[in-house]
Amino acid sequence: MVGVKDRVVVVTGAGGGLGREYAMLLAREGARVVVNDLGGARDGSGESTAMADQVVREIREAGGDAVASYDSVDTEEGARAIIGTAVTEYGAVHGIVNNAGILRDRAFHKMTAEDWEAVLRVHLFGSYHVTSAAWPYFREQRYGRVVMAASTSGLFGNFGQANYGSAKAGLVGLVNTLAIEGSKHNITANAVAPMAATRMTEDVAPPEMLAKLPPEQVAPLVGYLLTEECTDTGMTLVAGGGTYYRVQPFQSAGLRFEQTPSMDDVAAQWHTITDMTDATPGVNPVG
Ligand code: NAI
Description:
Elements (H helix, E strand, L loop, with lengths): L7 E4 L5 H12 L3 E5 L13 H12 L3 E5 L6 H15 L4 E4 L14 H29 L2 E6 L2 H5 L5 H21 L4 E9 L11 H4 L8 H7 L10 E5 L2 E5 L2 E2 L11 H6 L1 H5 L5 E2 L6
Parallel strand pairs: 1-2, 1-4, 2-3, 4-5, 5-6, 6-7
Antiparallel strand pairs: 7-8, 9-10
Helix pairs in contact: 1-8, 3-4, 4-6
The structure holds 1,4-dihydronicotinamide adenine dinucleotide (NAI).
1,4-dihydronicotinamide adenine dinucleotide binds next to helix 1, helix 4 and strand 6.
Protein backbone atom coordinates (compact mmCIF):
# COMPACT_ATOMS: atom_id res chain seq x y z
CA MET A 1 0.00 0.00 0.00
CA VAL A 2 1.17 3.49 -0.79
CA GLY A 3 0.98 6.06 1.94
CA VAL A 4 1.77 9.38 3.57
CA LYS A 5 1.56 8.23 7.18
CA ASP A 6 3.48 10.52 9.54
CA ARG A 7 4.63 12.68 6.65
CA VAL A 8 4.38 16.41 7.22
CA VAL A 9 2.60 18.04 4.31
CA VAL A 10 1.83 21.71 3.74
CA VAL A 11 -1.25 22.45 1.67
CA THR A 12 -1.60 26.11 0.73
CA GLY A 13 -5.07 27.49 0.14
CA ALA A 14 -6.49 24.56 2.10
CA GLY A 15 -9.31 26.51 3.74
CA GLY A 16 -11.82 25.55 1.06
CA GLY A 17 -12.37 23.96 -2.33
CA LEU A 18 -9.74 21.54 -3.59
CA GLY A 19 -7.14 22.36 -0.94
CA ARG A 20 -9.57 21.39 1.79
CA GLU A 21 -10.11 18.01 0.10
CA TYR A 22 -6.36 17.46 -0.23
CA ALA A 23 -5.84 18.29 3.45
CA MET A 24 -8.73 16.08 4.61
CA LEU A 25 -7.54 13.08 2.57
CA LEU A 26 -3.93 13.46 3.65
CA ALA A 27 -4.98 13.68 7.31
CA ARG A 28 -7.21 10.61 6.94
CA GLU A 29 -4.18 8.80 5.53
CA GLY A 30 -2.15 9.68 8.62
CA ALA A 31 -0.20 12.70 7.42
CA ARG A 32 0.37 15.70 9.68
CA VAL A 33 -1.02 18.61 7.73
CA VAL A 34 -0.37 22.33 7.76
CA VAL A 35 -3.63 23.85 6.58
CA ASN A 36 -2.61 27.19 5.14
CA ASP A 37 -5.16 29.74 4.00
CA LEU A 38 -5.20 33.49 3.91
CA GLY A 39 -8.98 33.35 4.11
CA GLY A 40 -9.72 36.03 1.52
CA ALA A 41 -12.25 36.35 -1.29
CA ARG A 42 -11.94 34.72 -4.68
CA ASP A 43 -10.27 37.81 -6.17
CA GLY A 44 -7.66 37.88 -3.43
CA SER A 45 -9.19 40.70 -1.37
CA GLY A 46 -9.57 40.44 2.40
CA GLU A 47 -8.29 37.86 4.86
CA SER A 48 -9.51 35.86 7.86
CA THR A 49 -8.45 32.99 10.05
CA ALA A 50 -11.87 31.32 9.84
CA MET A 51 -11.32 29.16 6.74
CA ALA A 52 -8.11 27.46 7.87
CA ASP A 53 -9.45 27.10 11.43
CA GLN A 54 -12.60 25.39 10.19
CA VAL A 55 -10.67 22.77 8.19
CA VAL A 56 -8.29 22.12 11.07
CA ARG A 57 -11.30 21.65 13.33
CA GLU A 58 -12.87 19.16 10.93
CA ILE A 59 -9.63 17.21 10.60
CA ARG A 60 -9.15 17.04 14.37
CA GLU A 61 -12.76 16.02 14.97
CA ALA A 62 -12.19 13.15 12.54
CA GLY A 63 -9.14 12.09 14.57
CA GLY A 64 -6.51 13.60 12.29
CA ASP A 65 -3.55 15.85 12.96
CA ALA A 66 -3.48 19.35 11.53
CA VAL A 67 -2.39 22.87 12.35
CA ALA A 68 -3.53 26.15 10.82
CA SER A 69 -1.39 28.74 9.10
CA TYR A 70 -2.84 32.06 7.95
CA ASP A 71 0.15 33.56 6.15
CA SER A 72 -0.03 34.63 2.54
CA VAL A 73 2.01 32.63 0.06
CA ASP A 74 2.72 35.73 -1.97
CA THR A 75 5.69 37.05 -0.04
CA GLU A 76 9.00 35.51 0.94
CA GLU A 77 8.26 36.17 4.63
CA GLY A 78 4.79 34.65 4.39
CA ALA A 79 6.12 31.52 2.72
CA ARG A 80 8.91 31.16 5.26
CA ALA A 81 6.33 31.43 8.03
CA ILE A 82 4.19 28.72 6.41
CA ILE A 83 7.09 26.28 6.16
CA GLY A 84 8.23 27.46 9.61
CA THR A 85 4.88 26.35 11.03
CA ALA A 86 5.50 22.82 9.71
CA VAL A 87 8.99 22.69 11.13
CA THR A 88 8.08 24.23 14.50
CA GLU A 89 4.93 22.17 15.01
CA TYR A 90 6.00 18.87 13.49
CA GLY A 91 9.79 19.07 13.21
CA ALA A 92 9.95 18.59 9.44
CA VAL A 93 8.40 19.22 6.06
CA HIS A 94 8.18 16.35 3.57
CA GLY A 95 5.70 17.59 1.01
CA ILE A 96 4.03 20.74 -0.26
CA VAL A 97 0.94 21.27 -2.35
CA ASN A 98 1.05 24.72 -3.93
CA ASN A 99 -2.67 25.10 -4.27
CA ALA A 100 -3.48 28.65 -3.15
CA GLY A 101 -4.97 30.73 -5.91
CA ILE A 102 -7.10 33.68 -6.88
CA LEU A 103 -8.99 34.66 -9.99
CA ARG A 104 -9.23 38.00 -11.82
CA ASP A 105 -10.69 37.02 -15.18
CA ARG A 106 -10.95 39.72 -17.88
CA ALA A 107 -10.59 39.76 -21.63
CA PHE A 108 -7.01 40.73 -22.42
CA HIS A 109 -7.94 44.13 -23.84
CA LYS A 110 -9.59 45.00 -20.51
CA MET A 111 -7.01 43.44 -18.21
CA THR A 112 -5.17 45.91 -16.01
CA ALA A 113 -1.57 45.53 -14.95
CA GLU A 114 -2.90 45.15 -11.42
CA ASP A 115 -5.08 42.15 -12.41
CA TRP A 116 -2.09 40.65 -14.16
CA GLU A 117 0.27 41.13 -11.24
CA ALA A 118 -2.14 40.05 -8.52
CA VAL A 119 -2.74 36.68 -10.16
CA LEU A 120 0.90 36.06 -11.04
CA ARG A 121 1.89 37.07 -7.51
CA VAL A 122 -0.27 34.47 -5.79
CA HIS A 123 -0.01 31.52 -8.18
CA LEU A 124 3.46 31.75 -9.67
CA PHE A 125 5.40 33.83 -7.16
CA GLY A 126 3.53 32.23 -4.23
CA SER A 127 4.36 28.71 -5.39
CA TYR A 128 7.94 29.81 -5.95
CA HIS A 129 8.23 31.33 -2.46
CA VAL A 130 6.76 28.32 -0.66
CA THR A 131 8.83 25.84 -2.66
CA SER A 132 11.94 27.93 -2.16
CA ALA A 133 11.36 27.98 1.61
CA ALA A 134 10.91 24.19 1.73
CA TRP A 135 13.70 23.30 -0.70
CA PRO A 136 16.65 23.47 1.76
CA TYR A 137 14.81 21.05 4.10
CA PHE A 138 14.12 18.69 1.20
CA ARG A 139 17.75 18.74 0.10
CA GLU A 140 19.04 18.33 3.63
CA GLN A 141 16.86 15.28 4.35
CA ARG A 142 17.21 13.97 0.80
CA TYR A 143 13.47 13.71 0.41
CA GLY A 144 10.72 15.97 -0.82
CA ARG A 145 7.49 15.96 -2.76
CA VAL A 146 6.18 19.04 -4.58
CA VAL A 147 2.79 19.28 -6.26
CA MET A 148 1.81 22.42 -8.17
CA ALA A 149 -1.77 23.33 -9.02
CA ALA A 150 -1.68 23.86 -12.75
CA SER A 151 -4.69 24.37 -15.01
CA THR A 152 -5.92 23.38 -18.42
CA SER A 153 -6.14 27.16 -18.98
CA GLY A 154 -2.36 27.27 -18.75
CA LEU A 155 -1.89 24.22 -20.93
CA PHE A 156 -4.40 25.11 -23.64
CA GLY A 157 -5.54 28.71 -23.03
CA ASN A 158 -8.93 30.05 -22.03
CA PHE A 159 -10.79 33.25 -22.85
CA GLY A 160 -10.37 35.89 -20.15
CA GLN A 161 -7.54 34.10 -18.38
CA ALA A 162 -4.36 35.60 -19.81
CA ASN A 163 -3.06 36.30 -16.31
CA TYR A 164 -4.19 33.02 -14.79
CA GLY A 165 -3.14 30.88 -17.76
CA SER A 166 0.31 32.50 -17.83
CA ALA A 167 0.78 31.84 -14.13
CA LYS A 168 -0.31 28.24 -14.50
CA ALA A 169 1.86 27.60 -17.54
CA GLY A 170 4.72 29.13 -15.56
CA LEU A 171 4.20 26.53 -12.87
CA VAL A 172 4.61 23.75 -15.42
CA GLY A 173 7.88 25.36 -16.43
CA LEU A 174 8.92 25.51 -12.79
CA VAL A 175 8.06 21.84 -12.30
CA ASN A 176 10.13 20.87 -15.34
CA THR A 177 13.24 22.42 -13.87
CA LEU A 178 12.59 21.41 -10.24
CA ALA A 179 12.26 17.81 -11.45
CA ILE A 180 15.72 18.00 -12.99
CA GLU A 181 17.37 19.79 -10.06
CA GLY A 182 15.58 17.69 -7.44
CA SER A 183 16.32 14.30 -8.96
CA LYS A 184 19.64 13.69 -7.27
CA HIS A 185 18.17 14.62 -3.88
CA ASN A 186 15.12 12.36 -4.10
CA ILE A 187 12.83 15.36 -4.58
CA THR A 188 9.99 15.03 -7.07
CA ALA A 189 7.91 17.81 -8.56
CA ASN A 190 4.72 17.33 -10.54
CA ALA A 191 1.84 19.49 -11.70
CA VAL A 192 -1.84 18.66 -11.41
CA ALA A 193 -4.43 20.54 -13.45
CA PRO A 194 -7.65 19.88 -11.56
CA MET A 195 -11.22 20.26 -12.71
CA ALA A 196 -13.66 20.66 -9.84
CA ALA A 197 -16.72 22.50 -8.62
CA THR A 198 -15.46 25.11 -6.17
CA ARG A 199 -16.07 28.80 -5.58
CA MET A 200 -13.44 29.43 -8.25
CA THR A 201 -15.43 27.67 -10.96
CA GLU A 202 -18.98 28.29 -9.73
CA ASP A 203 -19.71 30.82 -12.48
CA VAL A 204 -17.04 29.72 -14.96
CA ALA A 205 -18.50 26.34 -16.00
CA PRO A 206 -22.14 25.34 -16.53
CA PRO A 207 -23.93 23.82 -13.49
CA GLU A 208 -24.56 20.47 -15.18
CA MET A 209 -20.83 20.10 -15.80
CA LEU A 210 -19.93 21.18 -12.26
CA ALA A 211 -22.33 18.61 -10.81
CA LYS A 212 -20.04 15.92 -12.24
CA LEU A 213 -16.86 17.43 -10.79
CA PRO A 214 -16.79 16.99 -7.01
CA PRO A 215 -13.41 18.20 -5.71
CA GLU A 216 -12.77 15.07 -3.64
CA GLN A 217 -12.26 13.16 -6.88
CA VAL A 218 -9.00 15.03 -7.52
CA ALA A 219 -7.49 14.44 -4.07
CA PRO A 220 -6.27 10.82 -4.50
CA LEU A 221 -4.02 11.85 -7.39
CA VAL A 222 -2.44 14.64 -5.37
CA GLY A 223 -2.15 12.26 -2.42
CA TYR A 224 -0.41 9.63 -4.52
CA LEU A 225 2.11 12.14 -5.86
CA LEU A 226 3.03 12.93 -2.25
CA THR A 227 3.89 9.34 -1.35
CA GLU A 228 7.40 7.96 -1.13
CA GLU A 229 6.33 5.17 -3.50
CA CYS A 230 5.64 7.62 -6.32
CA THR A 231 9.04 8.52 -7.74
CA ASP A 232 7.81 9.88 -11.06
CA THR A 233 8.70 13.50 -11.55
CA GLY A 234 8.29 16.33 -14.02
CA MET A 235 4.84 15.18 -15.03
CA THR A 236 1.72 17.21 -15.70
CA LEU A 237 -1.56 15.46 -15.05
CA VAL A 238 -5.17 16.47 -15.48
CA ALA A 239 -7.78 15.21 -13.02
CA GLY A 240 -11.49 15.78 -12.67
CA GLY A 241 -14.74 13.91 -12.38
CA GLY A 242 -12.90 10.63 -11.84
CA THR A 243 -10.86 10.93 -15.07
CA TYR A 244 -7.08 11.18 -14.73
CA TYR A 245 -4.65 11.61 -17.58
CA ARG A 246 -1.21 12.93 -18.40
CA VAL A 247 -0.40 15.83 -20.72
CA GLN A 248 2.98 16.21 -22.36
CA PRO A 249 4.43 18.41 -25.11
CA PHE A 250 5.20 16.63 -28.36
CA GLN A 251 7.33 17.83 -31.23
CA SER A 252 6.83 17.31 -34.93
CA ALA A 253 9.48 15.56 -37.00
CA GLY A 254 10.03 18.95 -38.69
CA LEU A 255 12.84 19.38 -41.17
CA ARG A 256 16.34 20.77 -41.37
CA PHE A 257 17.21 23.55 -43.78
CA GLU A 258 20.77 23.17 -45.07
CA GLN A 259 21.05 26.94 -45.53
CA THR A 260 19.33 29.79 -43.76
CA PRO A 261 15.87 29.75 -45.34
CA SER A 262 14.05 32.73 -46.75
CA MET A 263 10.60 33.53 -45.40
CA ASP A 264 9.24 32.06 -48.63
CA ASP A 265 11.16 28.82 -47.92
CA VAL A 266 9.51 28.71 -44.48
CA ALA A 267 6.12 29.28 -46.07
CA ALA A 268 6.75 26.51 -48.60
CA GLN A 269 7.69 24.05 -45.87
CA TRP A 270 5.10 25.21 -43.34
CA HIS A 271 3.07 22.04 -43.57
CA THR A 272 6.11 19.81 -42.94
CA ILE A 273 7.30 21.97 -40.02
CA THR A 274 3.94 21.91 -38.27
CA ASP A 275 2.63 18.46 -39.22
CA MET A 276 2.25 16.40 -36.04
CA THR A 277 1.65 13.03 -37.74
CA ASP A 278 5.00 11.55 -36.65
CA ALA A 279 5.34 13.64 -33.51
CA THR A 280 7.41 12.32 -30.62
CA PRO A 281 7.66 13.44 -26.96
CA GLY A 282 9.41 16.80 -26.81
CA VAL A 283 12.96 16.99 -25.52
CA ASN A 284 15.17 19.91 -24.61
CA PRO A 285 17.95 19.87 -27.22
CA VAL A 286 20.29 21.69 -24.83
CA GLY A 287 19.25 19.71 -21.75
P1 NAI B 1 -10.70 28.12 -4.07
O1 NAI B 1 -10.90 29.58 -4.30
O2 NAI B 1 -11.77 27.38 -3.37
O3 NAI B 1 -9.34 27.83 -3.31
C1 NAI B 1 -8.23 28.66 -3.33
C2 NAI B 1 -7.82 28.94 -1.90
O4 NAI B 1 -6.59 29.66 -1.88
C3 NAI B 1 -8.85 29.77 -1.15
O5 NAI B 1 -9.27 29.09 0.02
C4 NAI B 1 -8.11 31.07 -0.83
O6 NAI B 1 -8.49 31.66 0.40
C5 NAI B 1 -6.68 30.60 -0.84
N1 NAI B 1 -5.73 31.69 -1.10
C6 NAI B 1 -5.85 32.67 -2.03
N2 NAI B 1 -4.80 33.50 -1.99
C7 NAI B 1 -3.98 33.03 -1.01
C8 NAI B 1 -2.73 33.47 -0.50
N3 NAI B 1 -2.12 34.55 -0.99
N4 NAI B 1 -2.17 32.76 0.50
C9 NAI B 1 -2.79 31.67 1.01
N5 NAI B 1 -3.99 31.22 0.57
C10 NAI B 1 -4.58 31.90 -0.43
O7 NAI B 1 -10.45 27.48 -5.50
P2 NAI B 1 -10.09 25.97 -5.95
O8 NAI B 1 -10.89 25.69 -7.15
O9 NAI B 1 -10.15 25.05 -4.81
O10 NAI B 1 -8.59 26.14 -6.44
C11 NAI B 1 -7.48 25.50 -5.88
C12 NAI B 1 -6.34 25.54 -6.89
O11 NAI B 1 -6.67 24.76 -8.03
C13 NAI B 1 -6.04 26.94 -7.41
O12 NAI B 1 -4.66 27.10 -7.59
C14 NAI B 1 -6.74 26.96 -8.74
O13 NAI B 1 -6.19 27.90 -9.62
C15 NAI B 1 -6.52 25.54 -9.19
N6 NAI B 1 -7.45 25.12 -10.22
C16 NAI B 1 -8.77 24.87 -9.91
C17 NAI B 1 -9.63 24.45 -10.90
C18 NAI B 1 -11.02 24.04 -10.62
O14 NAI B 1 -11.65 23.46 -11.52
N7 NAI B 1 -11.56 24.29 -9.44
C19 NAI B 1 -9.18 24.35 -12.31
C20 NAI B 1 -7.80 24.59 -12.51
C21 NAI B 1 -6.99 24.97 -11.49
